[in-house]
Amino acid sequence: MQGLITEVIDNAEVGSSWTEILARPLKDQSFDLVIDTQSRMLTTLVLKRIKTRFFISGAADFSLSTIKPGKGYVRPEAMCGRLLDLLHLAIAEPPDPLAPLPLAPEIADLAGRLLPQGYRYIAFAPGAGGKQKIWPLQNYVTVARSLATNGYVPVWFLGPEEATWVDDIAANVPGSLFPLQHSAARPLKYRADLTIAAASFCEVGLSNDCGGGHLLAAAGIPLVSLFGPTDPGKFAPMAVDGLVIRAQDFGGDGMDKIPPQVVLQALSTLLA
To answer: What pTM was computed for the model?
Structure first.
């Protein structure tokens, strides 16, 4: 995210082998602070070898962390809560999970051009990293068509794996917008800050258990999150106003168990 991150190291080749403990990862670089966000002990031991003044890690009950939580600390079940606790240690004060992210002016301007004022937008993030977490696309189409008949404009946030869905969705939900596939957005290659900026123009969002759902939540909009085989207590986004719908409440783990009418009702509740 330009303006928030100076550099991204796509593959530091850290944590794949015990032999790395004998070496020093990123040996030509040093850092003021390294925050280890995972819990695999091997990876943590390797990361501990990076040249840094402060190392924060929740692995092994913070035993390898330079800075540790106070006595009686209880680790949250939610992953978002765990990450915020690591940030708390880094900045020495409780972070505000709902604080707006600073976005580059050109990104905010582009988002405003992609979603001009004067319309009521609904955000959809229908993809996911695992197929088992995807609510059937036809159900998303059903929900979007119902909302469109009531004057809302469906806005679809599709990643590179879902880009082939554009034609099908456009044919079945006329008037849909696809900001990340717009010609003006293509050079940005699915940058997360554009998703957040564009989603902020929407009144409510709907997503599977996926990274896109967390980006919609980061935009500060109310969010309905759909969960099947995964645990919402651990993975639900930290939305300003969130509702979780679980497939288990309708007879199974499969995402197809969730009825579109229930999702429509949840969205209507948040829109109200």
So the answer is: 0.90
**Cα separation, 109 vs 107, whole angstroms:** 5
Q: How far apart are the first and last CA of the chain?
A: 33
Please check the confidence at residue 1 and state whether its pLDDT lies above 60: no
Length of the chain: 272
Query: Measuring CA to CA, how many Å separate 196 from each of 132, 170, 179, 201, 227?
Result: 25, 22, 11, 9, 21
Strands (E) in the chain, as ranges, are 30-36, 51-57, 120-125, 152-156, 202-208, 223-227, 242-246
At 165, give phi and psi (nearest 5°).
Answer: -80, -10
Note the pLDDT tens digit of each residue in 204-243: 999 999 999 999 999 999 999 999 999 999 999 999 899 9
How far apart are alpha carbons 67 and 83 in whole angstroms? 14
Set out the domains of the chain in order of their start, with CATH numbers: 18-91 (no CATH), 105-271 (3.40.50.2000)
CB 144 within 8 A of CB 177: no
Token couple for 149:
């008949």
- The CA–CA distances, whole Å, from 78 to 60, 75, 155, 233 equal 17, 9, 28, 6
pLDDT of residue 211: 96
